[in-house]
Design a protein that fits this description.
- The chain is about 10% helix and about 45% strand.
- The protein is built from one helix and five strands; from the N terminus they run βββαββ.
- It has a five-stranded antiparallel beta sheet with strand order 3-2-1-5-4.
Length: about 90
């Protein structure tokens, strides 16, 4: 069985889209009072690459945008899609 580290750096392999203002209950999360968003893409964490969604707070998404240089491809309702990136 794989043992996960309690802390590891997260690396974005692809950053496909952001779903804004998600309902925490849809993802099995308790309401925290924070505004939550779901980032869809490919990530490298704890030595493993995976596709999926990463649930982040408003403050975390601001920090991610400070680091990544993203180009918006399309905006529809509460979903923002980005042009393919290579990191």
């Amino acid at each position: 069985m794989i043992k996960f580290k309690t802390e590891s750096r997260l690396q974005f392999l692809t950053f496909d889209s952001i779903q804004l203002y998600i309902n925490p209950g849809d993802y099995g999360l308790l309401e925290t009072g924070n505004i939550l968003h779901a980032i869809e893409g490919a990530f490298f964490y704890c030595g493993l690459a995976t596709d999926g969604k990463l649930i982040v707070t408003e403050n975390q998404i601001d920090k991610i945008f400070e680091v990544l240089n993203l180009v918006i491809y399309r905006i529809s309702q509460n979903n923002i899609s980005f042009k393919p990136t290579q990191n």
